[in-house]
Every structure is written in structure tokens, then in C-alpha cells.
Amino acid sequence: MKTRTPHLTPFNPQTAHLWIVGGGIAGMSVAAFAIRDGGVPASHIHILEETAIPGGSMDGGAAPNAPAPQTWVTRGGRMLTDETYLCLWDLFESIPSLEDPTVSVREECRQFNAKVHTHAQARLIDGQHRIADAAKLGFSMGHRVQMLRLLALSEEHIGSRRIEEFFDEAFFQTHFWRMWRTTFAFQKWHSAIELRRYFLRFVQEFPRIHTLAGVRRTKYNQYDSMVMPLQRWLMQQGVDVRFGHRVVDAAFETLLDGSRRATSLRVQAQQGGSITDSTLPLGADDIAFFTLGSITSDARYGGNDDVPALVRDRQDHGWALWESIAQKAPDFGRPAAFCGNVDEHKWESFTLTMRDDRLLQRITEYSGNKPGTGALMTWYESGWHLSVVVPYQPHFYGMAEGTYTLWGYGFQVDNLGDYVRKPMAQATGREILTELILQMGFDDLLDHVLATTDITTVMMPYASALFACRAPGDRPKVLPDGAQNFAFLGQFVEMEQDVVFTVEYSVRCAMLATYQLLGIDREIPAIYNGLLDPKVGLQALEAAFH
What we know:
Number of strands: 17
Helix content: 25-40%
Shape: globular
């Protein structure tokens, strides 16, 4: 797929300077594509990142303020697939892996998944600790009609309506919804447009949603297996990465022919204990890439004996730049559509750091899942709607021998627990661990697990904000009409047909922006639509009628 914005004159890669606002995976991808495919000198690429680490929301590592060394945390988990993540794999085919520079990140993933196959055998568990037959999706004929109706409608006709406006209440009690919801992080009040897009992009998962056999994992967590190798490669090329640099505003001008340019960036740089404020003018050879919004903005951490705070008043700067830019033009998006309702988008995750593997062994015996296959398990009748993933060990690079982790999350954090009779949002780490162990039915292990486990909790006010019901224009285009030297990146830009809350979305928008602004004559992988494959469509239909 080749696309080109009308009236856009591509920049000369040899003289262009790229100013990338945000060091997350989208911004890093811009830098990589500019070097690999555009021939831009690495020293001409400047990444301005407010924090001290790369990767943005795609993080994982040592827990902050941990009670003991070698205590780990990931705020979120990410699933990958072969069919859908084509831009991601295109990028990482050329990035050397963390441990072996002769093997690409992509090839390392292939080798790892050839050895470790995801195949959940306890995808859904009821309130009596019984493993449900999740292969039976539970559709009535009415539900099938409701799904077909949603798929048949255009996004223009769906508008800003919620998922629950298209399905009856019984649909939300089906095994299908229980699995689809927890696999992709949907709530019934989220955007029906986004659900429709997911149905189309992941239709190949219908017959295997109960096993997640289509999921591909990285050897370690995605920060260690993807962000670290990419960051190292960029630094080796000579990219200018400036941590502690926050872009607080940008200026734009509209020319007589209707074209638009970014003319300057206002930058606050932290140096030692002081902050300097400066204006960076953008000249004829300068291109600006702006990352908009953040689903991990204002995330707060808790530990064994405390509770992570829920921040409602946007204390950090994850949304501030977009809020400022949005005032400059009506087509630069409306951030309030996504960050304006914390209660609809918050959820809480937790990471267990275990000093022995007794809990993991018991989970293996109970579930029938092979050790370390990353199989997702959901207690669908639990008050907090708990889910956990047991990853391949070690899950973190440099993890000490004899240390193990698992990651989980709760979707209904304001509900009372079934055993810990308080909302999850008010529970300490040990109380969340207690609820989890008792949901598993491992009462005899409770004291041992509490004594040998540290738990790190994370409250995220905007975790699912990208699924907010939206109207046309709420998300800006990657390249707004008339844009000559700037582009928008991240999970809150608009790309037709593609789905947010995926690493692929961030990489694809980076590829699109970089190729267009630099005039790169190379195919962008087409967006996968399984319904165009008769075999995939038939298998999905068979699963729906099972």
C-alpha cells in the first residue's frame, strides 16, 4: 500500500532534521524507518522524551519503591499475532535481538513461539473454581444477528454509540464476550466502532479465542525483547535521544495556499535540579512528529501494604501537549473525548514476584496449561473480574534464578471482592493476592504465598481511554490536511480500518508518517482483513455456530 498526501513535497532525507516528540514505540519507530528506509543521517534525528527511559507505555522492569530487590512490574500486557502485526514485524526484521546480534527480534520471536505454544486450557473459571468449556461461545441466533448487523453498518451510521446499544444483556453473559472482553480490554460502554474494527481485524481469532493459540509472545516482556533492542540500535546508529526534555507547546502557521507548517517547539529541559525553558525554531528542513495522549498517564503504584492512588486531575503531562495543540486548529483532535471520564476507563493491574515456584506449579496442575505458555485465565464470576497471565520464565532479562512472576488485572475495580470484602481500588497488594489465591481455590497455599511473594499494583486512570465513544474529528489524522512538515503519532490518531490498543497501530502510523514526509518509495503492508480469506471466514462462521 502506497499513499501520498496531495500537495506534499517530500523532504530531502540527507538534509532533513526530524524532531520526534515522545520516546515511545511510535517515536522510536519513526527514527528507525527514517534511517533504514529513508537514508536520513542518524545525527539528524532528535527524540525529545520527558521521562528518563524509552518505550512510553510499553514498559516493564524493576518495581519503583519495591520492598525488596528483584521485584518486578509490568503495567500492561500485549498480545501479538502473525497475521495482524505486519508493520511491527517489518520493523523488527532488521533490529538485532537483545542477546544475539546475529538474530533479529522478529526471528527470535519465531524461534521462541516454535518452542513455546500458547494454548489455554483454563480460559474461563467460574465462582466454584470449575473450568468452563470455553469452546462453546454461547451465542443465540439473536446474538449472531446482532453481530452481523454491527458488521454490516458503516462507521458513519454507528457514530458514537456504545457496544451495549447493539447487543442485548444476554450477549454480555456469553463465553464469547467474557473472553473477547478480557483478551482485548473491552467494556460494554466502549465504542461500537472500535468493537466492529476488532471483529474485522481479529476475525481469525474467533475459532481459537478459547485457547489463544494465535497469540505470539516475545522471549521476555516486550520492553526487554523489543524496546531495549530498538533503543540500543538507535543509539548505535547515532540518534540524538534527549531524555528529560518535555515539549509543552508548538506553534503552527497557515500559508496562503492553505498548507500548514509547524514553526516552533517550546521545550522544557531538566538539567540537574533546574528546568530551562526555550523555544526551538523549525526551519525549512525540520520535520516535527508529535505523540498525542497516553493511556498510562498518571499511573500510580502500590505495594504489599498500600493502595495505589487514583489520580483524577491529570497531574502529569501525558495529555497536556495534545490539549495545547488541539486549540490551534479544529482538526487537531479533541482530547477531552478520551481523558474526560476516568471511571469508564480506569483499571488496575498487578505483578507478583514470587521467591519460589509453588504457586506456578499448582496453577499448572490445576489448569492443565503447559508451564510458561502465557495462557490467559479469567475468573468471570469474580467481583473484581480478575484475570492472570503466567508467562514463560524468566519474564525479565536479568531476573535472578529462583524468582518467578505473573501478571494480572481487574476490570471491575469498584466492586466488592468475593473474599476480601472491599473494592479492588481500595485493596492493598496483599489483599489483592489473597483474593486471587482464594479465587483459584488454593486456600492451603495462601499463607505460603503471602510469605514468599511481593506484589506491585498499578492504578491507571486512562487504561482503556482509546476505546472511548468518539465522533468524527475526535482523533486527528496522522497527516492533517495541508500538513507540510508535521505529523501526529500514537494511539489517538485516526487510521481507517486499523485498531488501537495494539503495538501495530503505533508502528503503522509511524511508518505512514515517515514514508509520506520523506517520500519513501516502499510498500506499507496492507491492513489484514481475514474476511477476505474464504477459509478464515468459514472457520469464524463455524465457531459462531458451535
